[in-house]
Amino acid sequence: MTEVTLSNVVKKYGRHQAVHGIDLAIADGEFVVLVGPSGCGKSTTLRMIAGLEAITGGEVSIGGRVVNDLPPRERNISMVFQNYALYPHMTVAENLGFSLKIAKRPEAEIERSVAEAAAILGLDELMERKPAELSGGQRQRVAMGRAIVRQPDVFLFDEPLSNLDAKLRTQMRVEIKKLHQKVGNTIIYVTHDQVEAMTLADRIVLMRDGYIVQVGTPLDLFNQPVDTFVATFIGSPPMNLLAGEVSAPDRITLGEGLAVPVPASARGGLRVGQKVQFGFRADNLMPVGHAVEEAGQKAQLRLTVTLTEPLGTETLLFTEIAGTEVQAKMLNPRPVTPGETFDFELMLDKCHIFDAASGNAIRS
Amino acid sequence: MDRNLAHRNRRRALKVAHFLTLFVVMSIICIPGLWIVLNSFRPTVEIMAKPPVWTPSFTLEHYRAMFGGAGEGGVPVFSYFRNSLIVSVVSTAIAILIGMSGGYAFARYRFRGKAGWFVGLMLFRAVPGVALSLPLFIVFARLGIIDTHFGLILAYVAMNVPFTIWLTDGFFRQIPKELHEAAEIDGCTRWQAFWKVEFPVARSGIASAAIFAFLTSWNEFALASQLTRSVGSKTMPVGLLDFTAEFTINWGGMCALAVLMIVPALILTFIVQKHLIAGLTFGGVKG
Ligand SMILES: Nc1ncnc2c1ncn2[C@@H]1O[C@H](COP(=O)(O)OP(=O)(O)O)[C@@H](O)[C@H]1O
Ligand SMILES: [Mg+2]
Fold first, then answer.
1. CA pair distance B132, B79, nearest whole angstrom
2. Is the CB of B182 less than 8 angstroms away from the CB of A163?
3. What angle do CA B175, B180, B181 make, to 5 degrees?
4. What is the number of alpha carbons within 13 Å of residue A193 lying toward its C-beta?
């Protein structure tokens, strides 16, 4: 079986350390997405797994076998690159069959595998073309086809969709997910786009500055961010954060005369006088009558809307709490003019408290 | 309507001007060559005639004499041709092999003093070959490789390597490194990845570097005239000197030999040029 394990993996470029000892265990057949802002070491990590980058320290194993010193060809992996890296002097068919040809498989078998992959990805019409004669989306498909034909243990993707336009990207995202359901291989996928991460991943690995910040299912990261970085990186719009101070064991003061009860989940971890960040998502601040009816502790706030972003099924409302701009959401939308005032409900049970100094979430 | 017409006229005028300029420039480049070809087919009296004879007559006399015996103005054309061919082909092949390895190393690997090495190679190109002819002559004489194919090949390889490194470095640099990485993941060794992917993609560039190296060796005169002296090693450019005597120059014969020198170079360029154009259409790698 092909689980992939990283233990204390380090990468240094000269004096610059790009990856600071990561530990990660990926199960067989799992779809794991490495996500994080540009330059956080995602590609470097992926390339170390692929064998394209030497590992400075630690251990990478694929299917229980330590691969630190194995060249890429002996790791039985496939990789799809951001620029596709199709062989420009070969036709689509030759591109697809290249790995089998190198492995000296019989001609008939190569033809059959290539035809199969082409059928899966709808490339039959293009087999005789050269990469230069293909559109971006078609090239992307060929790159994926080339990866499939090998029947690898692990698929590696490095931002495979970032050169496509928005519509095609959504479409290919679905195809990649379907592909995973069909072939069931382990997939490690790198992206800087949190939407891609949320929609594709069984598990997300969120990285920052060469460290792993949080690992978990998309909903774990969305509902229980370990710090303000995760809270603002995952989810769209990003989580609202308000500066506040613990004024009593069960109260947080957010600004002039505005205090909210401490959510039950955080009560144990706070001390009076502590500076905190009070976080909540737009979904948890809605005008009365435009929210889903939910039981739980709520706070009522009267706020004035400054800007709206209608999205169809919902409308984003921009407003201010204690001088900080926050976003709220309105379900069952009706036209709203800026300046209009609503009574908002804040779902306290869904709020998050972070320590202001460290940014870490406080839970009891 | 009027504006359209004016626009069209101006476009036409521009096109004519463009054409004329090209014609003049090409004439300046081509007429000396044409002159050589024409003269090789004219009797000596006509070549030397003053005022010039405008209606040329045609003769193969110079060619006949050239291939004839030593007594009647013949020169060992076949030997010269063979020498030129051996020296040029071998030195080009070696220069391309070394140049390709060097260019690839410069394009793909990091090593200490890389920039310094590169500048050094280019500086080496800045030294005119003739300036080296005396030192080369002395060294070669001591080594006993004066007047051999080997000596000349050595000199030409040294002359061509910096240039081929520079050219191939540029071509390899244009190929994204992901290509060989993809090949390695697809099961190639580093060596296979180079020969099956990077080399074919850079082939047109390497071919053009080879043409340059070949033509440089084929036409080189200054060094060859110092380092060769006998029929066994003299190349065609040096062979041209056979037509100069103390007081006379056999212009017709010289032109005839020059034509024999130009023709293979032209043919080669044509063959490889087709290849070059085919190679240039390989298209982008990026989306
Ligand atoms: N070949 C290299 N040499 C030096 N530094 C590098 C090299 N490749 C990447 N880095 C550095 O390592 C860090 C992580 O890069 P990378 O893994 O490409 O980030 P990303 O998460 O955007 O894929 C960056 O700071 C980058 O500048
Ligand atoms: Mg990257």
1. 26
2. no
3. 120
4. 15
Q: What is the pTM of this model?
A: 0.85
Closest-approach residue (CA) in chain B for A147 = B186
CB–CB of B196 and A50 under 8 A?
no
Residue A88: give the domain boundaries. 4-233
Q: State the DSSP code for A161.
A: T
**Are B282 and A71 in contact (CB < 8 Å)?**
no
State the ipTM, two decimals.
0.88
CA of B179 vs chain A CAs: smallest distance (Å): 5
Kindly state the helix (H) or strand (E) to which residue A186 belongs, with its residue range.
strand A186-191
Is the domain of A165 the same as that of A202?
yes
Final residue belonging to a domain, choices A183, A198, A233: A233
> Which residue of chain B comes nearest to A75, CA vs CA?
B185
Domain boundary (A233, A257, A272) is at A233
A57-111 pLDDT, tens digit each: 999 999 999 999 999 999 999 999 999 999 999 999 999 999 999 999 999 999 9
What are A140-188's pLDDT values in tens digits? 999 999 999 999 999 999 999 998 898 889 989 998 999 899 888 999 9
Of all protein residues, whose CA lies closest to atom 20 belonging to ligand 1? A39
> What is the domain count for chain A?
2
A64 CB near ligand 1 (under 6 Å): no
Residue B24: phi, psi to the nearest 5?
-60, -50
Ligand nearest to the Cα of A207, by number = 1
Residues A143 and A252 in one domain: no
Per-residue pLDDT tens for A241-260?
Answer: 999 999 988 889 988 778 88
